[in-house]
Structure formats: C-alpha cells, structure tokens
Amino acid sequence: MTDINKNDVLTAEDGMARCWWGHEPLDYRIYHDEEWGRPVSDDIRLFEKMCLEGFQAGLSWLTILRKRDNFRAAFAGFDYHKVAAFDDDDILCLLQNPGIIRHRGKIEATIHNAHRALEIVDEFGSLARYVWSWEPKSREPGIGKNDANAPVPSVTKTSQLLSKDLKQRGWKFFGPTTAYAFMQAMGLVNDHMQGCSIRAQVERLRREFTPPC
C-alpha cells in the first residue's frame, strides 16, 4: 500500500468504500468497520486503548491489534483496579510473555497509569467523564506544517491540552499524537474520510450518544 495517497478512499471487492488505511489487511478492515470512531464510554475499554496506544509508540497499530487478545489476557482485561495491584513479580512475568510487547518502560507505565486512572475516577466519578470532557466543540485543524492542510490531522490543540493535563496528573506514554489517535479511535472525533461508507454510521452514533456527565 506504499503508493496509496493518504487522502484516498478505496472501494473493496465487497463494494464498500473505506478510508485508505482500513482497506487491507483484514484485521484493519474489521477494526475500521466495527470499532474505529464509534463512541465509547466504558471505562475499561477507554483504559485499554490508552494503554495500547502507549504500547504502539514506535510500532504500527497492526502489530498491537494482532496482539490485543494477548495484552488483554496479560493485563487482567485492562481492569485498572487489578492492574494497579500488579507487583514486581507480575512485571517479571510480563517481560517473559512473548505474546505482548516486552518493553519494561511501557509495562511499568501501564501499571503506573492504572493508579492514575483510579485517581481520575476518584475525582470525576469515572474515567469516561474525564475523557469525554475533552470532546472538541467543533472540527479542529491540525497543528504543524504537515498537519495544517491535512484532511486527517495527527495533532490538534485539544490533543495537546489533553496530553499536557494527563502528564501533569502523572500519566506516562501519552503524548499529543497518542492523545489524538485515542480521540479518533474512541469517537471523540469522526475522522472517517468523506466518501467512506462508515462515516455516516459513525456520525449517527455520535449524534445518538450521550456523553457521561
């Protein structure tokens, strides 16, 4: 797919037009059609995505996606109450688990961030309430020379502010680019491209969705 323009929408053999990245392989197609951009308010799923976005740093999302079930098994389904209780023995076990990314810094950050998630829940009532307080009021342009005119940005003002706020709260491995990828995936914005068959479905779900308050 190296010759594909990232502004493209591609039509597959099933007759559906998709964002260029969701065309193939099948793992991406299923994720694009059934998950990406659909609003999520479940705390466990939100925490999972925040962690997996951190693990993705320096890697492709496809690598993480194909290991997601392994990650779920290794990190107690990303129940942050349970992850926060992980100790040094658990870290050593995770470092020996070939089914996940065995990066000590990212593993320790996941456990550390579970404690920070508990703090957010104590303050806001749920992780979802905190996350959805960052939903942009309107479409935001990208920041930076490569993003300024891009149809799908990689960093926005809100993602910068979200990343900064989480950093101040002690979170790790959640920079502005990671924050925007999280916002896209969890439905805080709809970045399915114009012409994508899924875009209207996601927009309808966003209209029907009531953010936690």
Structure description:
InterPro entries: Adenine_glyco (IPR005019), DNA-3mA_glycosylase (IPR052891), DNA_glycosylase (IPR011257). Pfam families: Adenine_glyco (PF03352). Keywords: Metal-binding, Zinc. It comes from Desulfuromusa kysingii. This protein is mostly helical. The chain has a domain at 41-189: Endonuclease III, domain 1 (Orthogonal Bundle). Helices cover 50% and strands 3% of the residues. The protein has helices at residues 26-34, 43-56, 61-66, 68-74, 80-83, 88-95, 104-124, 127-132, 157-168, 176-185, 199-208, and strands at residues 9-11, 17-19. The chain has a two-stranded antiparallel ribbon with strand order 1-2.
How do you describe this structure in short?
With 213 residues, the protein is an all-alpha fold. It has 11 helices and 2 strands; from the N terminus they run ββααααααααααα.
Question: What attributes does this structure have?
Answer:
213 residues, mainly alpha, two-stranded antiparallel sheet, 11 helices, 2 strands, globular, zinc, metal ion binding, metal-binding
Radius of gyration: 17 Å
**What's the N-to-C terminus distance?**
42 Å
Main sheet summary: 2 strands, antiparallel
Number of strands: 2
**Assembly classification:** single chain
> Strands of the biggest beta sheet: in what spatial order?
1-2
Named CATH architecture of the domain at 41-189: Orthogonal Bundle
CATH class membership of the domain at 41-189: Mainly Alpha
Percent in helix: 40-55%
Instruction: Indicate the CATH topology of the domain at 41-189.
Output: Endonuclease III, domain 1
Compute the number of helices: 11
What are the segments in which pLDDT stays under 50 over at least 5 consecutive residues? Answer: none
Spell out the helices and strands N to C.
Answer: EEHHHHHHHHHHH
Query: CATH superfamily membership of the domain at 41-189, which one?
Result: Hypothetical protein, domain 2
Strand content: under 5%
Mean pLDDT value: 94
Tell me the overall shape.
Answer: globular
